[in-house]
Design goal:
Helices cover 12% and strands 42% of the residues. The protein has 168 residues and is mainly beta. The protein contains two helices and eleven strands. It has a single domain, classed as Immunoglobulin-like (Sandwich).
Amino acid sequence: MAPPRTRSRCRELLVLAALSGLVPDAAAATRLDDSLSPRQRVDIVARWEDRFAEGSSEAQRLSMVAEASNFEIRLNTAAWVGKQAAIYVSFPQEIVGLRLSDAMRIEWRTRGRFVSGATTPGQRALVYRGRIDSPVSGDFFDFTYRIDGRYFDRRIQFQPVFEIEALP
């Protein structure tokens, strides 16, 4: 744990960054309706990533990976047609089935206008930045979930959230 003076300085820098506009304001974001997306409940089977790799650490031996392909995401962006905007994806901080939210990393590849990326639970990541040209914006996502098996205790359940922010 950082000494009190360091924590205070970090908080001060974060406040200054937020005031200067360097940190995106999640409060300015609007949750997008994704009810146009095909509903899919997928049972994903995780496998050990490098369980028997020579010279691997305990964390590497207990690393799991799971994949889910071909997820179609369709977002209602009708209110933003003709405007510049940024669209983000986030995953809940608390993930059912994990004892520690930092024990999972979510990566994705896309096939259209959205950008590929990665994030961890409780964080958000940019998936699109530009002009909104259609009342429905979307893409196909191929997800890879990297899980620290030391904190995995049952079936993992979560729902991604997409948000939009108008840009100047």
